[in-house]
Design goal:
Helix content: 25-40%
Strand content: 15-25%
Radius of gyration: 28 Å
Oligomer: single chain
CATH topology of the largest domain: Rossmann fold
Number of domains: 2
Strand order of the largest sheet: 3-4-2-1-5-6
CATH class of the largest domain: Alpha Beta
Number of helices: 15
Number of strands: 17
Structural class: alpha/beta
Largest sheet: 6 strands, mixed
Shape: elongated
Distance between the termini: 93 Å
CATH architecture of the largest domain: 3-Layer(aba) Sandwich
Length: 458
């Protein structure tokens, strides 16, 4: 008997993938001043800037600050693009898998942001340019990119997509590298060996090799020890409490921070912590302790005026203008001097360092273009720097130079930075596990009980 023929079912054709939506990004002035190369960081998507941004950048092109450098570099970039193209037309960006660029004139917007918000201001002109581009490219998802939170809110109120500039931003700042760990249930033999020999093979104490220059509080059932992983010898070394010009660490993290500052093989140190944890004091004390190793000690901090009052509003010459911003550094120096009798040899040495310009307090604006050799350089309030500013400072380092950054990533004083995008967070995240770098997060306030109350409750 003949079997009936069977029909084979054809496999269904694979569905074609939906094409990715086209995107176009409009950058405002805050993004350019944060990163002059931002235009090149949007992959294959189109990027534009309103003509108003060029007008604003013209106001920033003069000066020694990093934002002035960023403005000048971007203007040069635009000048090169316009050598063979009209800026009002889409210009292909050089490089593989890059989109196009143009300058927006702001004409043709279906609604007028200046009328809606009832004010003629730069932000509203930028909104109008973005609205006009959205009208021009109906098949694109047009997004305004700005570090100005209020401008993002205004854009969304006009049904525009708006977002922060994400390049260089640390995504999970709550898990940012801390530089030290508490390890429980350590064998007593490890603690004993650390105290008797000063070192111990890392595999006897830890299940896996730690990051370079990482610090540990090691505890057994009855004893404990402070230890440091030396990336050169690949062993754990005991950390004793050092003393620097009369300043003694008051807790384990302060001990680690001062150890890193004094260690000759560690050339880059960052110390993070809230107010009163001793960041600046430890950095300055450690630097003075090494006055015979380095030719000069530089102390600097970003000048962030309050209430929009810039240096030009203050009376006097340059030194008089920067004086109020540098006062916290002088306060720490006076505290160190007060560890000794007024006319003692140690107190006089510190005075002589200031008089002989061996200890110099200077604004960061004067650092660009210099090569800093045989110095120890302390940058306070580093959370107010951009990632590019951090890179610029470190790139100034010459032979026998050590750089120390201190700051609190949650206490930002500049309007376009936050805990994720500031330069200190960026440095901690990118430099960890490098043999030249060590980081410590200070957790316990040591200034006073009253200062601790403010940090904990207010």
């Amino acid at each position: 008997m003949q079997k009936p023929a069977t029909t084979r079912k054809r496999a269904p054709k694979p569905e074609a993938e939906a094409p990715k939506p086209k995107k176009a990004f409009v950058l405002d002035t805050s993004v350019i001043l944060y990163d002059h190369s931002a235009v090149e960081h949007f992959g294959e998507h189109d990027v534009a800037i309103p003509i108003t941004v060029l007008e604003e950048l013209d106001n920033f092109k003069k000066g020694n600050d990093i934002k002035n450098f960023e403005a000048r570099e971007f203007i040069r970039f635009i000048d090169q693009l316009s050598a063979e193209h009209m800026l009002q037309t889409w210009i292909p960006l050089s490089g593989s898998n890059k989109g196009r660029f143009k300058v927006l004139m702001g004409h043709g917007a279906p609604i007028d942001a200046e009328k809606i918000f009832n004010e003629d201001k730069t932000d509203h002109k930028i909104l109008n340019a973005t609205l006009a581009l959205q009208h021009e490219l109906p098949d694109h998802r047009v997004t305004l990119v700005t570090k100005d939170i209020n401008l993002r809110l205004k854009a969304r109120a006009l049904n525009l997509s708006a977002e922060d500039y994400e390049t260089g931003k640390i995504q999970n700042v709550t898990n940012l590298y801390r530089g030290s760990d508490l390890v429980e249930s350590i064998p007593v033999t490890v603690i004993t060996q650390l105290y008797e020999q000063g070192e111990c093979p890392v595999e006897e104490a830890l299940p896996q090799p730690p990051l370079d220059n990482h610090y540990f509080i090691l505890r057994s059932a009855k004893s404990s020890a402070l230890a440091y992983y030396n990336p050169q010898s690949r062993i754990l070394e005991r950390v004793d409490k050092p003393v620097a010009v009369g300043i003694k660490p008051r807790n384990a993290e302060q001990t680690f921070a001062l150890h890193a500052i004094l260690h000759p093989d560690i050339k880059l140190v960052s110390i993070q912590g809230v107010a009163g944890t001793g960041k600046t004091l430890l950095a300055l004390a450690g630097a003075i302790e090494q006055r015979e190793v380095y030719r000069q000690i530089y102390l600097a901090r970003p000048i962030v005026p309050l209430s929009n009052r810039d240096l030009g509003f203050l009376p006097g010459d340059a030194n008089s203008k920067i004086g109020p911003y540098m006062e916290p550094l002088w306060d720490n120096l006076k505290f160190i001097q007060n560890q000794f009798p007024e006319h003692s040899r140690e107190s006089n040495r510190i005075k002589e360092m200031v008089e002989d310009d061996r200890l110099v307090i200077t604004p960061l604006a004067y650092i660009r273009g210099r090569s800093l050799s045989n110095i120890i350089f302390i940058i306070d309030e580093a959370q107010n720097l951009t990632p590019h500013e951090i890179k610029t400072i470190i790139s100034r380092a010459g032979e026998n130079t050590k750089i120390i950054f201190t700051g609190d990533i949650y206490q930002i004083d500049t309007p376009y930075l936050d805990s994720q995008s500031n330069g200190l967070s960026y440095l901690i995240d990118k430099a960890k596990n490098h043999p030249l770098y060590a980081h410590i997060t200070l957790q316990k306030g040591e200034r006073s009980e009253l200062a601790n109350l403010a940090n904990q409750l207010l």
